[in-house]
């Protein structure tokens, strides 16, 4: 269970304090229920995901995680100058698997199917390749909730199918919270939806209702 | 999956390995430059003093005087500069909740201590082959003084990195500050050459104390000014306490986008 309490967020840049992106988001996301975030560009979907995943902090309010939550799978978490393999080793080590590195790395390498590029620096990767690695990395560890920002959507069709299948195998013990701009991807993975607009979030038990609310708002 | 203590420990190990790899093999001859830079400084300053027909400094051989001062100063400077940029170079890893800004700073500073160990061994080894006396009279005093310089470098790096995060332009000031610090810390010119009352003023600089204590640890007959461990370590404690308090208090600011 993840509890989001009155989360407000605004970004501070060198031009000063920006507008509120999130203005008081309250929700309880139960474990075992996959959720898709919908909303227009800039509605705060990625911001909310990053805050839920703990990669960023709310300006006000807080998030309680009562289960094992993955890091937000997005462009963060990978160091561009290191190779895919070096990044994978690092991630395995910080999760406490330094004693079973070869097995874990093998699993990641096989799942990501990057071929020779696995030993090339990440900064040479395309966004699809990054997504493959990100997805393979987080699937190498057991989390109760996986957080995915467009990662599952960015790969090609073959990879999307593979990701879907891998995720179905996990679905009895894990769920996903995701952002994707493709309705089909969302429908394939999620049951419920959260619709973000003007910094507020609305929960829908059925994803279709959330998508409908989004379409009505345009 | 693990307790908080083992979690932190595994993060430190992973960061240490990642940073070591980057420091020694980040570019084709990264490891060689770690050695060449201080060696060039030592060679250059040694030549200057040689041309001035100066053979001893405070009763010890001028070459050893330069080597010890330069390496000790480099230990401080590299540790502080690496700590200063630790956050920016590992920004991506804050996506993982278990990686905290302080972990990154500590890992980077430790890598610097590790790499400077090799630099010391190589350069002192080369000095020994040239017939200089490189066996310290009091090795514990040398190690304690070097530890003080390293910890002060870490503390200084922590404080300056918070400043740079809050006011990005301050990074330029810290870069500029390193140059006068090099000149007034007794690396290339002994403080005894400076007339009173200015000499007393320069003794406010804790680096002077660290450098002179290293030289005293190698040569107990070295004449120098009145330097003390308690002064050096007050700065160490002060800077580390302030730096860690800032990291604790502003942890979210350091990580936030």
Structure overview:
The complex is a heterodimer of chains A (218) and B (257). Chain A is α/β, with parallel strands linked by helices. Chain A is built from 8 helices and 9 strands. Chain A has a 6-stranded mixed beta sheet with strand order 5-6-7-3-8-9, with helices on both faces. Chain A has a 3-stranded antiparallel beta sheet with strand order 2-1-4, with helices on one face. In chain A, α2 (84-94) packs across α3 and α3 (101-112) crosses α4. Chain B is an all-alpha fold and 257 residues long. Chain B has one domain (4-256). Chain B has 11 helices and 2 strands, in the order ααββααααααααα. In chain B, a hairpin with a 2-residue loop joins β1 (56-57) and β2. Chain B is globular and about 60 Å long. The A-B interface holds A 11-12, 14, 53-57, 68, 71-72, 74, 76-82, 86, 90-91, 93-96, 98 and B 1-2, 6-7, 10-11, 13-15, 17-18, 21-22, 26, 90, 92-99, 168, 252, 255-257.
What layout of secondary structure does this protein have?
The complex is a heterodimer of chains A (218) and B (257).
Chain A: E1 2-13, E2 16-29, E3 35-38, H1 45-53, E4 60-65, E5 69-73, H2 84-94, H3 101-112, H4 127-139, E6 145-149, H5 151-154, H6 157-170, E7 175-179, H7 183-189, E8 192-197, E9 200-204, H8 207-217
Parallel strand pairs in A: 3-7, 3-8, 5-6, 6-7
Antiparallel strand pairs in A: 1-2, 1-4, 8-9
Chain B: H1 4-25, H2 30-51, E1 56-57, E2 60-61, H3 62-84, H4 86-89, H5 101-129, H6 139-166, H7 170-184, H8 198-202, H9 206-218, H10 229-249, H11 251-255
Antiparallel strand pairs in B: 1-2
Helix pairs in contact in B: 1-2, 1-5, 2-3, 2-5, 3-5, 3-6, 3-9, 5-6, 6-9, 6-10, 9-10
């Amino acid at each position: 269970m993840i509890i989001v309490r009155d989360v407000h967020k605004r970004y501070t840049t060198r031009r000063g304090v920006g507008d509120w992106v999130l203005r008081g988001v309250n929700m309880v996301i139960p474990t075992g229920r996959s959720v898709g975030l919908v909303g227009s560009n800039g509605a705060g979907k990625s911001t909310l995901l990053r805050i839920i995943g703990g990669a960023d902090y709310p300006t006000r309010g807080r998030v309680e995680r009562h289960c094992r939550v993955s890091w937000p799978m997005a462009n963060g978490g990978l160091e561009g100058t290191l190779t895919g393999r070096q990044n994978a080793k690092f991630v395995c080590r910080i999760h406490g698997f330094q004693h079973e590195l070869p097995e874990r790395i093998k699993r990641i390498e096989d799942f990501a199917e990057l071929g020779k590029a696995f030993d090339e620096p990440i900064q040479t990767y395309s966004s699809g390749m990054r997504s493959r690695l990100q997805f393979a990395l987080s699937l190498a560890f057991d989390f109760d909730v996986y957080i995915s920002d467009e990662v599952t959507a960015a790969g090609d069709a073959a990879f999307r199918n593979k990701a879907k299948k891998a995720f179905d195998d996990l679905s009895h013990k894990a769920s996903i919270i995701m952002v994707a701009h493709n309705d089909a991807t969302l429908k394939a993975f999620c049951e419920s939806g959260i619709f973000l607009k003007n910094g507020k979030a609305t929960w829908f038990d059925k994803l279709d209702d959330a998508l409908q609310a989004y379409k009505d708002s345009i | 999956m693990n307790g908080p203590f083992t979690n932190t420990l595994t993060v430190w190990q992973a960061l240490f390995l990642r940073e070591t790899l980057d420091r020694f093999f980040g570019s084709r001859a990264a490891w060689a430059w770690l050695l060449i830079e201080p060696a060039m400084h030592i060679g250059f300053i040694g030549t200057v003093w040689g041309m001035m027909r100066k053979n001893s400094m405070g009763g010890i051989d001028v070459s050893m005087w330069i080597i010890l001062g330069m390496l000790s100063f480099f230990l401080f400077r590299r540790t502080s500069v690496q700590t200063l940029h630790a956050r920016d170079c590992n920004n991506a890893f804050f996506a993982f909740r278990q990686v905290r800004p302080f972990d990154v700073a500590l890992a980077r500073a430790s890598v610097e201590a590790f790499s400077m160990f090799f630099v010391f061994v190589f350069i002192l080894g080369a000095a020994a082959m040239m017939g200089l006396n490189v066996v310290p009279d009091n090795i514990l005093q040398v190690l304690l003084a070097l530890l003080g310089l390293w910890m002060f470098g870490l503390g200084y790096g922590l404080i300056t990195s918070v400043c740079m995060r809050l006011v990005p332009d301050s990074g330029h000031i810290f870069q500029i500050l390193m140059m006068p610090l090099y000149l007034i810390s007794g690396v290339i010119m002994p403080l005894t050459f400076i007339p009173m009352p200015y000499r007393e003023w320069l003794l406010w600089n804790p680096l002077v104390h660290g450098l002179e204590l290293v030289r005293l640890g190698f040569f107990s007959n070295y004449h120098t000014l009145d330097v003390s461990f308690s002064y050096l370590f007050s700065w160490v404690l002060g800077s580390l306490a302030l730096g860690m308090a800032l990291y604790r208090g502003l942890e979210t600011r350091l990580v936030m986008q």
